[in-house]
């Protein structure tokens, strides 16, 4: 009798599983019918779509997934489709559609993509911070609080701190030049950019150039690595071989948030006690938050979300941009000479750089803009299509994600002649302006809050480097790109350093 009931239960379970699977297959078929009029590469399989090709690209040592997107854009045009299981993404490289969608607040960030970053392997990570907040009202409230701390006027008042942190790098490079030690530039500028954001934003001096194996710095690295694996490989957490790394990433995430909570509470206490506090970004944020009557636990969690966001999205991307700029200058001697000549003319032998000096370094600005064209450190963003739309003559039904890749659009021949050539002249004041195909800091209302901060920092560090040192790339190193959540030089950019006479 019992065995018969067991057989019945097993039968009904199998029938339920089969029915669910059949229903899922029918839904996949429905999606294929709905979107298959849009061009795109052949699917690897009916159920998985293009998942196999995408996973292979993610784990490839020699190719970037962004190069695969570029290849498909060149083959299938400015609008093409990607299927992953029951999820459809429309890749778009049409300037008019980019303008329409990115510049409008009615197209929200794709909830599926950005809500994945709320937690990282079960630990709250970016939460509902400025990058990940999908709800427009929630995002706008945070942005209004943050804006005064990132205004051009306020950041210009902090240039002496940028200068002080940059001088530490110059001292380190002088020591390495005297010892004739090759410099791994990415590691060095990574320390500086993290020092800058800690000091300028939160009034904390980590002095990472004189530390080894900083837990905080390692935590940022681990979180970036975990983020890319969690978002792009839905099966990563299922394999026991990955569980050790997952636990390390969880601990790193917890360290970042606990550190942020400690720094924020210390500053709140100092303000409450009437102590003198730095006029830094954290003070500005707390001041604005008080005016907005932001005091509850949920708001504190959002402050921590943005604390983590600043380090993940701000520090790392600036370090990568500097590394790519140094690599590009080392590979292009004529551009290097011209940039150095401009720096020498504007700065001479002066040690402290002013805002006025930075404004005169126009060619250096072009170098940095061209660096971000060829090597955008944050290479893409998504929006959710809640209504039918026609893009480049193709009707795209609602209910899917639209992805914009600056890496792809900025390397397409139709937008930039000879796109793989590093040419700062593209951004000369008299050159034609790119029309909605160049967006390293995104576009529209969700454009990067820290873009002035990042470019001010990058320009000052690079100017000091060109003023004080001659550098050349060590032969034999790779110039490939590594994708670790943000794009960075794979080799770390190893240079021989010599002081200018």
TrEMBL record:
It comes from the Eukaryota. It is a single-pass membrane protein. It is an enzyme of class 1 (oxidoreductase). The keyword GTP-binding does not apply. It holds the Pfam family p450. The keyword Iron applies. It catalyses: desmosterol + reduced [NADPH--hemoprotein reductase] + O2 = (24Z),26-hydroxydesmosterol + oxidized [NADPH--hemoprotein reductase] + H2O + H(+); cholesterol + reduced [NADPH--hemoprotein reductase] + O2 = (24S)-hydroxycholesterol + oxidized [NADPH--hemoprotein reductase] + H2O + H(+); testosterone + reduced [NADPH--hemoprotein reductase] + O2 = 6beta,17beta-dihydroxyandrost-4-en-3-one + oxidized [NADPH--hemoprotein reductase] + H2O + H(+); cholestanol + reduced [NADPH--hemoprotein reductase] + O2 = (24S)-hydroxycholestanol + oxidized [NADPH--hemoprotein reductase] + H2O + H(+). It is found in: Cell projection, Dendrite; Endoplasmic reticulum membrane; Microsome membrane; Postsynapse. GO terms for cellular component: dendrite; endoplasmic reticulum membrane; postsynapse; presynapse. GO terms for molecular function: cholesterol 24-hydroxylase activity; heme binding; iron ion binding. GO terms for biological process: cholesterol catabolic process. The chain crosses the membrane at residues 6-27. Pathway: Steroid metabolism; cholesterol degradation; Lipid metabolism; C21-steroid hormone metabolism. Belongs to the cytochrome P450 family. P450 monooxygenase that plays a major role in cholesterol homeostasis in the brain. By promoting constant cholesterol elimination in neurons, may activate the mevalonate pathway and coordinate the synthesis of new cholesterol and nonsterol isoprenoids involved in synaptic activity and learning. This is Cholesterol 24-hydroxylase. The gene is cyp46a1.1.
């Amino acid at each position: 009798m019992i065995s018969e009931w067991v057989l019945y239960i097993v039968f009904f379970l199998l029938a339920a599983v089969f029915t669910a699977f059949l229903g899922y297959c029918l839904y996949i078929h429905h999606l294929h019918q709905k979107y298959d009029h849009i061009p795109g590469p052949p699917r690897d399989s009916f159920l998985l779509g293009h998942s196999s090709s995408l996973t292979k690209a993610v784990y490839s040592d020699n190719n970037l997934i962004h190069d695969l997107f570029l290849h498909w854009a060149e083959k299938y045009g400015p609008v093409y489709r990607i299927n992953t299981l029951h999820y459809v993404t429309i890749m778009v490289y049409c300037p008019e559609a980019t303008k329409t969608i990115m510049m409008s607040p009615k197209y929200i960030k794709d909830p599926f993509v950005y809500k994945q970053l709320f937690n990282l392997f079960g630990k709250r990570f970016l939460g509902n911070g400025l990058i990940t907040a999908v709800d427009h009202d929630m995002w706008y409230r945070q942005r209004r609080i943050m804006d005064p701390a990132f205004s051009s006027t306020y950041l210009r008042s902090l240039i002496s701190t940028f200068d002080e942190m940059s001088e530490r790098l110059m001292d380190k490079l002088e020591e390495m030049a005297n010892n004739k030690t090759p410099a791994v530039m990415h590691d060095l500028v990574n320390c500086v950019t993290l020092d800058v954001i800690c000091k300028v934003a939160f009034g904390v001096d980590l002095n990472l150039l004189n530390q080894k194996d900083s837990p905080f710095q390692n935590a940022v690295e681990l979180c970036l690595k975990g983020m890319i694996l969690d978002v792009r490989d839905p099966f990563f957490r299922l394999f026991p071989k990955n569980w050790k790394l997952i636990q390390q990433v969880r601990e790193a995430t917890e360290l970042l948030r606990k550190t942020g909570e400690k720094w924020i509470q210390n500053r709140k206490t100092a303000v409450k006690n009437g102590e003198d506090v730095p006029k830094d970004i954290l003070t500005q944020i707390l001041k604005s938050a008080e005016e907005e009557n932001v005091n509850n636990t949920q708001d504190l969690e959002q402050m921590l979300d943005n604390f983590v966001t600043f380090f993940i999205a701000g520090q790392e991307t600036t370090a990568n941009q500097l590394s790519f700029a140094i690599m590009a200058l080392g590979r292009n001697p004529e551009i290097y000479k011209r940039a150095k000549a401009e720096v020498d003319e504007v700065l001479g032998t002066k040690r402290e750089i002013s805002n006025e000096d930075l404004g005169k370094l126009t060619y250096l600005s072009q170098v940095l803009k061209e660096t971000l064209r060829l090597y955008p450190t944050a290479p893409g963003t998504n929006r959710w299509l809640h209504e039918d739309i026609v893009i480049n003559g193709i009707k795209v039904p609602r209910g899917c994600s639209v992805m914009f890749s600056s890496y792809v659009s900025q390397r397409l021949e139709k937008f930039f002649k000879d796109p793989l050539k590093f040419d700062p002249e593209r951004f000369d004041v008299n050159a034609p302006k790119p029309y909605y195909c160049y967006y390293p800091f995104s576009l529209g209302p969700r454009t990067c809050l820290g873009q002035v901060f990042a470019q001010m920092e990058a320009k000052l560090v690079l100017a000091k480097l060109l003023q004080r040192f001659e550098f050349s790339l060590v032969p034999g190193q790779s110039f490939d790109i590594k994708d670790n959540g943000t794009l960075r030089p794979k080799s770390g950019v190893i240079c021989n350093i010599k002081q200018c006479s």
